Amino acid sequence: MKLNKQQYDALAPYEKHFDSAVNHRWTRFPGGAALDMIHDILLQVTGLNLPVNKCCSHCILELMTEMGRIYLSDRDEMKRTEVAIKESLIPDPVKVEVKTKRKYTRKPKE
User: Would you list the DSSP string of 26-80?
Assistant: First the structure.
């Protein structure tokens, strides 16, 4: 994981924006303060200093795409880890032999 817990939680409200930017090559404007925060986190995590012009749609899409790739990969990794932990907590089934008595001695119809 590249993001720490605090960064991941700060980016969580913009998950739909990241998903549309990465998978569909479009995004909505998340807001000026959000773009500054996303840019700061991207700079901390990767050192990549992308231009942040809030009037340039290509700049916003590129920023959201780069941050989205990191965010979505971390999200998938966290889900895989949670599933692995849950599976390790499930005990193995115990095989039990069950013997039953037959009530009827009549043969079934053919």
Answer: ------HHHHHHHHHHHHHHH-------TT-HHHHHHHHHHHHHHHHHHHHHHHH
